[in-house]
Write a structure and sequence with these properties.
heterodimer; A: about 290 residues; two-stranded antiparallel sheet; 13 helices; 2 strands; B: about 300 residues; mainly alpha; 11 helices; 4 strands
């Protein structure tokens, strides 16, 4: 039971992370490879609050403040990085964000206050399944409302054609920056939730490979699809565990299997499971009717 | 001259020597990045892995008794052949699926080789046998080893060969033509697929050579060794102007020297952050790189 609970915790954290990256890479069409860096900023900022300056209020209230601190810190980091980098396009932006993600990790590695390369211990265990999934639901609601609203439409138009959006009078730079900062902020929100569940943070939790895995979740589900991000996070959290049960050899080669899957996905179905569609009740009903079931 | 100043110059000289050696390695890897980018506009994330493969081919040949004169060309050949296979199986089918899809497959290929390496040869570092006995030449407080000299000379020779290949041979002319305009080159009867395969081969062979040189220099190799030098060589390629062959050589040298000067005089803990810092500065100030020309984007 503990094992399943732990998996569910991780799945929830990755859902929030994937939703954040989906806003940047999927909805806005930019290419960020530094998501783990923002996750680290949020986790360390939130944990620093609860370790060094918690207010004398109930734990749950402190957790909420910690999440707020994490969100704000990562969103500010997103602004600092986004404003110069979002002038770049495509692959250049990917490399620049990758660079920033690594710089953030190396900086934390050298900060003795935050435990440096020994890791940060003794973080209070405030987070649990309830809080994580509450935030997952809130994030999903926020994303749905954002994508359906005026600002969301503007962000989508940048993905579809940036030059056309620009000439239709949309301030593309402003909306790209907003999407980038919110996406980074969501990664920052996942940070304290993760930190207060694990009670331990280490810079190596936030290496480049995690940015790739989160990206893989978003792409597997379908770039731009909210339900896709959720399903992608769920599958890729469960998959290593399933592979573990399939015997020693499979477990040992799990990362090789991951990478082959990634390449195969790109070759066979580059749009992911859902594409840009959403998994809604309406869509399910239609699907069942078309198959002659409903 | 007072003593403090003298030691400062000794330090400076030493860092420059180390920087040029390190920079030669970056330059060799960066050449492959820049050639592949020049010809199919793909950032080949897996390029660092060709360097790792070269190092391991060299390692296994050397420990099974082959001399360096066989192991070195064989490593170049091995890395080149793997690159051609990868190009055929992964990059060619995906070439028209958009740049993001191509970039993600390149990432996947990179991870594949890293973890395949860990699974087959083990994650622990291997000791590259010291085939060349190390001799240090001293001048004041500065030192240069024969291996450093070998690395610098080999790099220069390989670059001259590459220069001859690209500027004075028929296949080099075809490479330049495909890079300049893919479709027009195809209409002129150039077999573009063959040229692209050949470009991958040459680029990866240079990276493989760098792998063996690093094995000789640092004496350890491991399956993950390609990750950081691969990313840094990409930075070197962007620094010099991506797609421009002399730019990659210049970028590699500049990156190696700056990295050694900064870590030597100032912040040794931030070695890996320097390259990314340079990347971000160059992208913001002159995204086309040191030797690049500005091309306006047309709608």
């Amino acid at each position: 039971m503990d094992y399943l609970a732990h998996l569910a915790l991780n799945a929830g954290v990755f859902m929030i992370l994937a939703l954040g990256l989906n806003l940047i890479n999927g909805v806005c069409g930019q290419f960020s490879l530094g998501h783990a860096g923002f996750w680290a900023v949020g986790a360390y900022a939130g944990a620093a609050y609860s370790l060094f300056a918690p207010l004398p209020i109930p734990d749950w209230a402190n957790l909420l403040i910690s999440c707020g601190v994490g969100f704000t810190a990562a969103a500010i980091a997103g602004l600092i990085i986004g404003i110069p980098c979002l002038r770049l396009r495509g692959d250049y932006l990917a490399i620049a964000t990758l660079g920033f993600g690594e710089i953030i990790r190396i900086m934390i590695n050298n900060m003795e206050v935050l435990g440096g390369s020994r890791g940060l211990t003794g973080i209070p265990a405030w987070s649990n399944l309830f809080w994580i999934y509450l935030f997952v639901v809130l994030t999903v609601l926020f994303m749905i409302n954002l994508v359906r609203g005026t600002h969301g439409r503007a962000i989508i138009s940048i993905r579809e054609d940036e030059i056309a959006a620009d000439s239709m009078g949309i301030n593309t730079f402003k909306y790209k920056t907003i999407a980038f900062a919110i996406g980074a902020g969501l990664a920052g929100l996942a940070g304290p939730l993760f930190a207060h569940a694990q009670q331990f943070l280490h810079p190596n939790n936030f290496t480049f490979i995690w940015s790739v895995i989160i990206l893989l979740m978003v792409i597997l589900g379908g770039l731009g699809s909210i339900s896709g991000a959720i399903v992608g996070a769920l599958i890729l959290t469960a998959l290593p565990e399933v592979l573990r049960f399939m015997g020693e050899t499979v477990a040992q080669w799990r990362m090789v299997i991951y990478s082959v899957m990634l390449i195969a996905l790109m070759l066979l179905r580059p749009e992911g499971i859902f594409g840009k569609r959403e998994l809604t009740l309406h869509w399910l009903q239609k699907l069942l009717r078309d198959r002659g079931v409903g | 001259m007072n003593e403090e100043l003298l030691y400062f110059f000794y330090d400076l000289g030493q860092y420059l020597i180390n920087g040029i050696t390190q920079g030669s390695i970056y330059a060799l890897i960066a050449l492959g990045y820049t050639m592949v980018y020049g010809i199919i506009k793909l950032i080949n994330f897996a390029h660092g892995e060709f360097y790792m493969i070269g190092a391991f081919v060299g390692y296994y040949l050397v420990i099974s008794g082959a001399s360096l004169w066989i192991a070195f060309p064989a490593a170049m050949l091995g890395a080149g052949v793997v690159a051609v296979i990868i190009e055929r199986l992964v990059y060619r089918p995906i070439r028209h699926a958009g740049r993001i899809a191509a970039l993600i497959s390149a990432l996947g290929t990179s991870l594949f080789f890293q973890y395949l390496g860990q699974g087959t040869v083990g994650a622990d570092p291997k000791t590259f046998p010291p085939v060349i006995e190390e001799i240090s030449y001293e001048w004041g407080e500065m030192m240069i080893s024969n291996i450093q000299i070998i690395i610098i000379i080999t790099t220069i020779v390989l670059m001259l060969v590459l220069r001859w290949l690209v500027s004075s041979t028929r296949i080099g002319m075809a490479m330049r033509a495909v890079s300049f305009n893919h479709d027009a080159a195809e209409l002129m009867g150039i077999d573009t697929n063959k040229i692209i395969s050949f470009t991958f081969f040459v680029g990866a062979a240079l990276a493989g050579a760098a792998g063996v040189l690093v094995g000789l220099y640092y004496n350890t190799i491991e399956p993950m060794m390609g990750l950081m030098p691969g990313l840094k060589a990409f930075v070197a390629a962007v620094l010099g102007g991506i797609g421009i062959i002399p730019g990659a050589a210049l970028g590699g040298l500049v990156l190696g020297i700056v990295e050694n000067l900064v870590t030597g005089f100032w912040a040794s803990n931030y070695r890996d952050a320097i390259a990314f810092g340079i990347l971000i500065i160059i992208l913001l100030i002159k995204p086309t790189g040191l030797m690049g020309k500005n091309i306006r984007e047309k709608v």
